[in-house]
Specification:
206 residues, mainly alpha, three-stranded parallel β-sheet, 9 helices, 49% helix, globular
Length: 206
């Protein structure tokens, strides 16, 4: 904080130790995560704890553990994302082991995944279908679960839309991160080219 650190983005992914160990191979400990998130907030640094939901082998119990961790630590933002397959990752190299099943050839699915466009302006349920199933669930089912988890966090006053880069841009606009998010979304939703131009110029000038 004293050196000028404004925000830190942590890949929390899950609040369930079983999921962290068996599905994610994170090498992290839930209690360490809890302590780090709390200490970062106490230091006055904007704290972001991202979550992957649902993970492979997710259960109602593991969902509750992740929810409880986020509610207990109450990071400033907790972006929620569905699981993605990336070449070179454990999930990408051994998809069947983790419950993934391709809906097209493996080679085509990997190419599709590497060019997949995440459209943050819209909820995930409006994004293009994923080229795989997870534990028998298709894209719509996965994205609905992701969206519902994010919605539950927001109902407790936790933002799910802000990452560290947005915090820095908000500073340049002399806005809070939440206000900047609303402002930028309004500009893009309405296609306000002049407003977008002014916003970009203000940020770059900072």
């Amino acid at each position: 904080k004293e050196s000028g650190c404004r925000a830190i983005f942590y890949g929390v992914e899950s609040g369930c130790q079983r999921i962290l160990d068996e599905s994610l191979n994170k090498g992290t400990n839930v209690e360490e995560i809890r302590e780090i998130l709390k200490r970062t907030r106490e230091a006055g640094i904007y704290t972001i704890g991202s979550v992957i939901y649902p993970c492979p082998a997710e259960t109602a119990e593991s969902r509750k553990e992740t929810l409880d961790l986020i509610l207990d630590t109450h990071p400033d933002s907790a972006p929620v994302q569905f699981p993605g397959l990336v070449p070179g990752s454990t999930w990408g190299d051994e998809p069947e082991r983790f419950g993934f099943k391709f809906t097209m050839s493996r080679e085509r699915a990997m190419r599709y995944g590497m060019t997949y466009k995440i459209k943050l302006i819209f909820p995930p349920k409006f994004w293009k279908p994923l080229p795989y199933l997870l534990d028998g669930r298709d894209s719509r089912a996965l994205m609905t679960e992701t969206g519902n988890f994010a919605k539950e966090l927001r109902s407790h006053g936790i933002s799910t839309n802000i990452a560290h880069d947005m915090v820095l841009m908000a500073d340049k606009m002399s806005m809070s991160p939440d206000d900047f998010h609303k402002h930028s979304m309004r500009l893009f939703y309405t296609g306000d080219r002049e407003g977008i131009k002014n916003m970009v110029e203000t940020i770059n000038a900072g």
